[in-house]
Amino acid sequence: MKRRVIATTAILTLALSACTTVSVAQNPISQRWVGRSAGEFFAKYSPPLSDTENGSTTVYNWRGGYSRIKLQNGKSASVSCSAKITVGQDYVIRDITLVGDRPGANGASYCEELLAPAK
User: Fold this and answer.
1) Is there a contact between 43 and 91 (Cβ–Cβ < 8 Å)?
2) Do residues 104 and 79 touch, judged by C-beta distance below 8 A?
3) Residues 112, 102: Cα–Cα separation, whole Å
4) pLDDT digit string, tens, across residues 84-95
5) For this UniProt entry, which residues form the secretion signal (predicted)?
């Protein structure tokens, strides 16, 4: 009976850890930018609009990538991307949360096309 409980616990632990890995892997923007310098991000895409200090982190409100693109349906649209970027005291990006996105020229997310283009 003890072996069954231990085996079940081990299986559940592995299953839950796999779920966490999958959710991170599905976000190409986080894959590209988390762990990199916020200075590099802001230099490439424009400075933040505002910031809020939250203990040992700072959350930047950012909007950029203003452009006019041709959508897959042949129509054109004005687009931009908005995000909250959490940065540690070392000015390294800890998290990026999209707060405004539109369809892109090649898919469902203009922000992904802008911030994590396919290589």
Assistant:
1) no
2) yes
3) 10
4) 999 999 999 999
5) 1-25
